[in-house]
Each structure stands twice: as structure tokens, then as C-alpha cells.
Design brief:
alpha+beta, 4-stranded antiparallel beta sheet, single chain, 218 residues
């Protein structure tokens, strides 16, 4: 993730696509730093409505699909953003969010699914989890990046494992830890490791207490 300050009345962090992504082409527009592979395009979904990203060509596992870009804002600043920008944000750290430069950045239209075919690689890059066929919608699970309640909604993804509602607590689900191993945002990876350690210590304490109780009654 490449961040830099731009001059102005107030220092602000901006994040741009890695140089490797820019060289490959696929920038959304000449003035944009967001990246969307040329194998994908933004289309309107006929059934549910709204825009989405669809594959035009086959995408192989691990292949780079998109790189989000934007301005880093705090939780307080996020609440003050216009709705059309706020709805295209992603949490990248504790109390820090990446807000899109504008409402029409292609990667921002990658939607949620509880059974996604893409996932995070770091904070802002999106890669294929498995082979994506031409015509497939590209999706991620927002549990990979969202760790706060700023973007919660009823889910209608229609997958067999649909959770019914997407929340900022979904990352706590141990089933998802295994399913998305290596594809959580780094700050969530830290949370998950800490939670695993706490659970391990609690389990070890319970085992010790149980052992002591059995010895006392023997």
C-alpha cells in the first residue's frame, strides 16, 4: 500500500495503486489511481439492480483483479462524507477507512457475497480465490475487511451459506477464519490472532481447573 501526503490546508493521506498494477494497464480512467483488470468490466445487474463487476475473460486463482484507492479518513471524518462517497469506503485499519475519490471508481462496485470468488491480498488489493469464469460476478465477503458497524445490511446474495445479515462482527466467525485464511485485512488478522490466543488461554485455564477438581475429589 503506497501512501503519500498531498499539499493543502490540512495534511491528508492518499493511497494509490501499486506501480506494478499501473504498468499492467486497467486504470479506471486517466485521472484515477484505482485499478481494475481489463478482464473485468462494470455492468448493471439485471435482477437485483445496481452496478457490479463482472469477468469478461477467465481469471486464474491468485490473479490480481483490482486495487482500491482513495483518501484515508478517520471514523469521525467518515460520518461527515457525502452518502455517495461513504457507501464506497472500506475499513483498512482500526478507526481508519479508505474513502473513494469519487462515486464512479470501478473497483468500488465489487459487491459482497457470503460465498465469494475473490478476496483481499493486504489492505487494498483484490485477488481471485479460485478460477472465475467469463460472465461471473466478482465478489468478496465484507467480513474480510469490515470490523466495525459502519456498513451493516441484510444480505440477499442467495448463496447456500448466506448469513442473512452482514455485520461488523462477522470476522469473529471461526468458520470464516479457516475459509478465508490469508485473505483478511491485516488489522483483522491481528484481531483474529489475539482472539485465538485469548480462547486458547481460557481453554487451558478450564482444563487446569477441571484437572484440579478431579484430583481433589479422588
Amino acid at each position: 500500500m503506497s501512501c503519500r501526503e498531498r499539499p493543502g490546508t490540512r495534511p491528508q493521506l492518499y493511497c494509490g495503486a501499486p506501480r506494478s498494477a499501473r504498468i499492467r494497464g486497467g486504470l479506471v480512467s486517466p485521472g484515477s489511481t484505482a485499478y481494475l483488470t481489463e478482464k473485468c468490466e462494470v455492468q448493471n445487474r439485471d435482477v437485483t439492480g445496481g452496478n457490479a463487476v463482472f469477468a469478461r475473460d477467465a481469471i486464474e486463482p491468485g490473479e490480481l483483479i483490482a486495487v482500491w484507492t482513495g483518501r484515508i479518513v478517520s471514523t469521525e471524518e467518515l460520518d461527515e462524507l457525502p452518502l455517495d462517497i461513504r457507501r464506497h469506503t472500506v475499513q483498512v485499519e482500526e478507526r481508519l477507512y479508505l474513502a473513494s475519490h469519487g462515486p464512479d471508481e470501478g473497483p468500488d462496485f465489487i459487491n459482497h457475497s457470503c460465498e465469494p470468488n475473490a478476496g483481499l491480498d493486504g489492505q487494498v488489493a483484490i485477488v481471485a480465490l479460485h478460477r472465475i469464469q467469463p460472465g461471473d460476478e466478482v465478489t468478496i465477503d465484507y467480513a474480510m475487511c469490515d470490523g466495525s458497524p459502519y456498513d451493516e445490511f441484510d444480505c440477499a446474495c442467495g448463496s447456500a451459506c448466506c448469513r442473512g445479515r452482514v455485520t461488523g462482527e462477522d470476522w469473529r466467525n471461526p468458520t470464516l477464519w479457516e475459509r478465508y485464511a490469508g485473505h483478511f485485512s491485516p488489522y483483522l488478522e491481528r484481531r483474529i490472532r489475539a482472539l485465538k490466543r485469548r480462547r486458547f488461554r481460557r481453554k487451558r485455564t478450564l482444563v487446569a481447573v477441571g484437572t484440579e477438581a478431579r484430583e481433589n475429589t479422588a
